[in-house]
Amino acid sequence: MRTGAAAIGTVLFAATVPATVVGVLPRWLAQRDDTPPAPPARRHLGSALCAAGLPLVADAFVRFVRARGTPAPVAETEELVTSGPYRWMRNPQYVGVIAMVVGQGLRWNSLPVLAYAGYLAVAFHTWVRVYEEPRLHERFGAAYQRYAASVPRWPRPVRR
Length: 160
Fold this sequence. Notes:
The chain is 70% helix and 0% strand. By secondary structure, it is mainly alpha-helical.
């Protein structure tokens, strides 16, 4: 896939899937929640999580375009992406999405949004295990096997 087509595909994907998962659905859930506003410290923590998650997702999308593909399974990258945040975890885009949804739940003091974040974490983990990892192994073989053996699926605490 050419880089221009990958960029257009990624923008269309971002305008539909992540915009719905991170924007529309959490807002819809929060509007149905009648809890009082979050205290300032919780709102600030929520804002920080949103601010930390967005660059992970945006960076992943840019790396997918450079690898001549999109985040959408129908237009996969032509190259295995292992740079940037992918050096430390195999799924930074999902970590970024979860961080943003948890951040919104904290900002809005919304238990339904926080529960939705938990649902997303389980759904992403299942998707990664059932579809993405087998597909990456099929497409990239030994290169993916080496990568998966050396980089954890999800972030791990730093050991000193």
